[in-house]
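Protocol step 4 of 5: obtain the predicted structure for the target chain.
Materials: sequence only (see below). No template structures provided, no constraints applied. The aim of this step is simply to have a reference model before the mutagenesis design in step 5. Sequence pasted as it appears in the construct record:
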Amino acid sequence: MAAQSSYPPPANGITVVSPHFLAPYPVDLTIVKKLLTLSDGNFAVTDVNGNVMFKVKGKHISLRDRRVLLDAAGNPILSFQKKLISVHNRWVVFRGDSSDSKDLIFTAKQSSLIQLKTSLDVFLGYNDKENVCDFKVKGSWFDRSCTIYAGDGATIIAQMHKKHTVQSIALGKDTFSVTVYPNVDYAFIVALVVILHEINEEKNDVE
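Step 4 output (structure tokens):
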């Protein structure tokens, strides 16, 4: 792990979901997308020691796909779904297992309709006007190389990179790593990565 000085922590910390998901050191997570939907979820998120931190399960409700982020004990932390009528592929994220507007935490949408590179704008629930995004994701999903910035675009809060292992290739799993900077809500970062995955998988299906 790089020296902590390589990861300048945000001045006041960044809490989106809960301060419970902040750590005073960089948090390295491995996210595995399972090709077959098993009983323990579509995604598994582990720490560097292999301990399960989160699971993501899919729920198919009529035309609307929902995903639920669960902690290791199976408690729902967030639920997110794609808006049915959305030009920019917008996803909305709620607290717990809710889909009530009062529990809206943030929304994420593609920055533009036609994208050669990955670019996602993220707006917190109270940012109704959406003139300026609160967070931004930029990079290349194809290379699994994306960077998540705070709203000003100058402060990096997390970085994602592909993780190749013999096991992941043999099992046909999509495995990637995320380094969450100190004092940044890592549950929020996991949710963003899952949304990125869903948007890009959907794009591949269309193509």
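Step 4 remarks: The mean pLDDT is 79. The chain is about 15% helix and 45% strand.
Proceed to step 5.
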